[in-house]
Amino acid sequence: MRWLAMILAATLSLSAWALDLQQAKRQGLIGEQLNGLVGVVQGGGQVNAVASDINRKRLESYRDIARKTGTSLAVVQARAGQLNIERTPSGQYVQLADGRWQRK
Amino acid sequence: MRVAILVFWSLWLAACTPRVEVVVPDKPITVNLNVKVDHEIRVRVDRELEKLFEQEQELF
């Protein structure tokens, strides 16, 4: 029973974050960075909270991949950043090498 | 006789030493190896990342 509750809570909280991340990206509050993490384009406390939660989970996964493929976290982050920016739909923000945000 | 052997050995060693040094700096092979490893790692990392994008859609 406790198991079920935990799984349910995890799934619900994940889908709640999902909505927030996608909304924030569509509203131009959050963008993709070259280091494979999201950054805050503009916004307050709630946007920061979403970004840091997503980044914490992403970093965990990136570390797993680095371990699995026998490379460094930096290599995984660089590849992830490039792929994320390629996958970003037009209208949303990506960060350039000099740190400026650009609408794709 | 012993002196002759000693002289022969020192000549032998002296003759051999430069050869070892010539073999060591062989850079092109190292560079090619690095490129190959980098490419393989890139392919493996990309494959794992694509998997991650599908499995954890809420994070991307």
Automatic annotation (TrEMBL), chain B:
Keywords: Lipoprotein. Pfam families: Lipoprotein_19. The keyword Lipoprotein applies. This is YnbE family lipoprotein.
